Batch of 2 targets.
Target 1
Amino acid sequence: MATTREDIVAATTELFRSQGFNGTSLKQISTESGAPTGSIYHFFPNGKDELGAAVITESGAAYQSLLELIADDATDVVEAIGALFDGAAAALEESDFIDICPIGTVAREVASTHESLRQATSEVFGRWNGALSIRLAAAGIDGFKADELATTIVSAIEGGFILCRANRKTEPLRVTGRHMQLLVRAALL
Amino acid sequence: MATTREDIVAATTELFRSQGFNGTSLKQISTESGAPTGSIYHFFPNGKDELGAAVITESGAAYQSLLELIADDATDVVEAIGALFDGAAAALEESDFIDICPIGTVAREVASTHESLRQATSEVFGRWNGALSIRLAAAGIDGFKADELATTIVSAIEGGFILCRANRKTEPLRVTGRHMQLLVRAALL
DNA sequence: CCAATACTAGAACGAGCGCTCTAGTATTTC
DNA sequence: GAAATACTAGAGCGCTCGTTCTAGTATTGG
């Protein structure tokens, strides 16, 4: 059984996915989560900004766990990259192209206007980069190259979400994933 | 001398870059463009949605011209890709990380809620893809492969903007650009 | 069992939203 | 030069925004 706080964060995460930060109102969050305004302000006294930061940090950690699960399940790092992009594409299709990463959306919207949120997104991306980088390095890629490759892979996933959502097609993520596999394979030689 | 309509579109484009669609109010657009509300509704009778679509279509065309200029200025297609990403990175830094592509931001925000805007973003991305694809094919890459590569390149640019903006660093775009050059070079062999 | 704390509940606030409307001034067209 | 059209100007509409506030109910600790 989920706590009220978890309900609020979960509902907000879902709303951020399809409408972003500015497009989501506290009224909607209250309705979708079943928690009244008072509860939202009880758990997040600084209001929407604080709730937004929690959504970014916590959903960022959840994505990272998923990423690590996928990676450690694959037989090699090249297969892992493919599974990552194909998994994202499948989730997107299943949700009628709603289920994109909310962090990239919020980063674009508010990086210039809400410094605390910008920092939260930056930290999450940094951690993803680290998780990917470590696994690429473990597969035999030089540390610096691994870090650069991880940066490109995160960029490609986030950009892939944009094209998939705009076109209502999963091809961009799948195609981009295959190109990322190619880059990793080349770095392994 | 710019027309009032051009002033409105230009001001809105600039505001979308830093705050997105939902984060930008008509009041701000009026103030920044110098045009009163009446003028905005004179040129865009269907209001904010119609203005938003115009911003996407017109700034999309402007970016495409820039892309073609850069591409046709370069000695080869690999150099062109590098110039594209480095140019984007430089513009970003010069503008204190505000000057990202507004189209990717709007696509993520409103693709599920404003069908007309989603279509506008899809068309723009399609045209960019075409412009890139033609040039990759002209350099000797098989047509289908060229199209796929173009998709990945557009994804990578848009995703690169996210990481750069979140981290307030230009490295992600530059690193990603070098990786794209690598992919193109590999496809040319 | 009672006091303190945690949490729920939602009405109400001022501010700002997108949009409409009326009235005005330029500019064109015949 | 008169009539029609194009555009400017901004006050004001109903509504929703994020936030605050008061009052209530559970839950906990001594």
Note: Residues 25-27, 37-38, 41, 47-48 of chain B lie near DNA strand C (CB under 10 Å from a C1').
Target 2
Amino acid sequence: MGIVERKEREREEMRKLILEGAQKLFLTNGFDKVSIRNIADEIEYSPATIYLYFKDKNELFFSLHQKAFLKLIDEFTPIATIQDPMETLIEMGRIYLRFAFENPELYDLMFIMTAPIDTLACRDDVWEDGHRAFGLLQLVVQRCIDAGAIKHPNAEQAGLMIWSTVHGLVALHLRKRMSMFEEDAQKLLDNVFELFIATIKRGL
Amino acid sequence: MGIVERKEREREEMRKLILEGAQKLFLTNGFDKVSIRNIADEIEYSPATIYLYFKDKNELFFSLHQKAFLKLIDEFTPIATIQDPMETLIEMGRIYLRFAFENPELYDLMFIMTAPIDTLACRDDVWEDGHRAFGLLQLVVQRCIDAGAIKHPNAEQAGLMIWSTVHGLVALHLRKRMSMFEEDAQKLLDNVFELFIATIKRGL
DNA sequence: AAACTTACTGAACACTGTTTAGTAAACAAA
DNA sequence: TTTGTTTACTAAACAGTGTTCAGTAAGTTT
């Protein structure tokens, strides 16, 4: 009786087909252009079919946002080889910034858009992906504290402060709130990040 | 010949009527519920009429965003009485945070949503409101530098770093990316802000 | 071969922003 | 006052959106 297994497999493949169609659309045309009908066209199915595999559009966006988190976590892997905890923290920041610049739509989806988070709210679930990613940062910050590189004893608070600064830079840039600065955005953000690192090295 | 003047006055009043209808709707029902038809209903005019006073919905949102900036700038006025520049900077941060907590929809409109900024982009104009507000911050930072409270010589960079941190905190909170923290959001943000202040006092 | 189940879709519903043709009132010129 | 012109407004339509549902055709089981 391998039929139910095959059906389950086919179901998974259909979900994958829909998600990849959606991802292709928004990585080329931008998120606003990703409608259920456009996705249906892209994968050559009817719009109604998508609702047999996803509860609504938010749930589809939530799945995309999960895929994006896998990609970010994956880009963090090189930091495992770094010995010095402060160097690890700095490299994490650089990778985070680079990810945001190279994948602005994905970053927006992960940390700015409300769509993926709304699907969690309505089934009052926790934001596991965010939780896990912040856990990674908090761990590195804790190691900095243990090594004496950071004096503040609360790794959660210190971690949130660091995350906020880097996210703030990215969010202001992605949502076009940095038009008052002449400098090239990438360079500007890199410079401010280095300034921030220097500041916490002395003051945190 | 006071007719053209009266007409101009009536035109301004109509714009005001539309804007206030729109503001009332989103301050009670949230931004998603603000449609051109809803505004039209609210002010008892036809939807098409709105387009005689605003180019499109983005321009309407842009006007609302301008009104919000007047409100924020207004809340900054008390800082003029503070002598110590570092205390001024800290109080600015507290006011900024309070504004964001008390007016989440307005903050979102001013610093996160793309709608108001898009109207600037298409007539390639500069973001005056943002420019002016950041100018205020930069001025205070410069005074901190002049007083020796901040060592870093570049007020623009330092100002952007400070803005990014505070905006990051607010943006993560408003877009529901802080669900992993048990603590009450307001308290958490206040604590992290105080930690940040302590950090820049020592390290910036 | 008949009965049942599953996968899918066309068409509709209730919205959205926006445009356009047409109307009625206000104003200007005769 | 009557005519012509401008202004202010709207009904209706267009093209799009997310979502639901009745109906169909194929796959599966009895």
Note: Residues 1-54 of chain B form a domain with the Arc Repressor Mutant, subunit A fold (CATH 1.10.10.60).
